[in-house]
Amino acid sequence: MAKSSSKSNQNETLWISYLRSFITFLVVVHHSALSYTTFARFDSEVYIRSTHVIVDSERWGFLDLLVDFNDIYFMSLMFLIGGLFLENSIRKKGLLKFLKDRTLRLFVPFLFIGTLFMMLAYYPAYLTVTGQHSIGAYIIDYFTLQGWPVGPPWFVWVLFLFNVLLVVYRYFRTPSLSPKKNTLAGLSEKPLKLFSLLFIITTLAYVPLSLILGMNFWSGIGPFDVQLNRFLLYLTYFFIGVYIGTTDFKNSIFSQNARWVSYWKAWILIALLAFTLKQFIPSVLLGLVQNQVLPEILGWTIFHTIFAFSCTASCIALVACFRTFIRIKREWWDSFSENAYMIYLCHFIFVVWFQYLLINLNQPAFIKFLIVTLASLFISWLFSITARKISFLKKYV
């Protein structure tokens, strides 16, 4: 009976596992596209200041849209998923064992595996700038002039930090701070109120910091780097995930029969309209500001608010679609899900090296992008399957 219940619980959360791995897939696609966007630029003095490690002369405007669309929502959603099961894990393990497990699962791979992988990934940029093959000189340059680039594993250390903050909160929390009623869970039958609440939360978490710091403000020490204007946004989505995780979400807010889930077509339409608005509104706002119709601060506020609206709509649309359509286990998807963490950690090596090797290939950006994406995805997956057969590595990734 216990086995049957466990299998039922796994089936109920299958869509979440597949959604998490789908976002990992999008991350690979995202980084594969960065070499071929029209806005890509390479800084030959300090390559870490480039928009991407390798910048090709071939460009494709469609990839600008793809990169921009992903950038709006997919890491916020990843943080929400990252917080979803933590309360139950803490209850089962206790705070100290939970923190130890999180250290082994997140911080250790980030610091050691992540650093090694990023050193391998950034080497083509060093070759591009210097034309030298000196490993020693590269290592010195990597840790000094480039400042120990973090690359995609930034997500892992920030997630670990959020886990630590959750442990601190749980340690000092008094019973009176425990919610007697989970507000979000009660909105499963009220789609408009659910969207409005999440939009307001997203706006408050994102807009003020972005107005103060700017859109793409990265800061940190060494590999502990983060897009600071989004720090509160990511933290908020993480704790939304934790908050949802305190309830029987499988039968409430994330129930397949929840009213808001049944509106998946509407959410897709809203998400597409919101993203379209975000693409066209900057030129309108710029004209109004230049003509002194709008104060600049108000123009930026409107733009950042539309970003928050688009982020909210895209997150809700993707969750609703996966909750609606993911019902059957797929062996290949199970394999990808099991290996998603290692794929996330290692894919950047293969993406960058393929982009580097293809840079002189006389083919359109679309062809290069497709080769990089498929090859990197396949080899990352294969590498993960092989590496995770090593018992020492498997306990970490």
Q: Please state roughly what percent of the residues sit in beta strands, choosing from under 5%, 5-15%, 15-25%, 25-35%, 35-45% or over 45%.
A: under 5%
**Relative helix content:** over 70%
Given as residue ranges, the uncertain stretches (5+ residues, pLDDT < 50) are 1-8
Distance between the termini: 31 Å
Shape: globular
- Average pLDDT confidence is 92
The radius of gyration is 22 Å
Strand arrangement across the biggest beta sheet: 1-2
Largest sheet: 2 strands, antiparallel
Number of strands: 2
What is the structural class? Answer: mainly alpha
Number of DSSP helical runs: 16
Order of helices and strands: HHHHHHHHEEHHHHHHHH
Write up what this structure looks like.
This protein is an all-alpha fold. The chain is built from 16 helices and two strands. Helix 8 (191-213) packs across helix 12 (296-325). The protein has a two-stranded antiparallel sheet with strand order 1-2. The two termini are 31 Å apart.
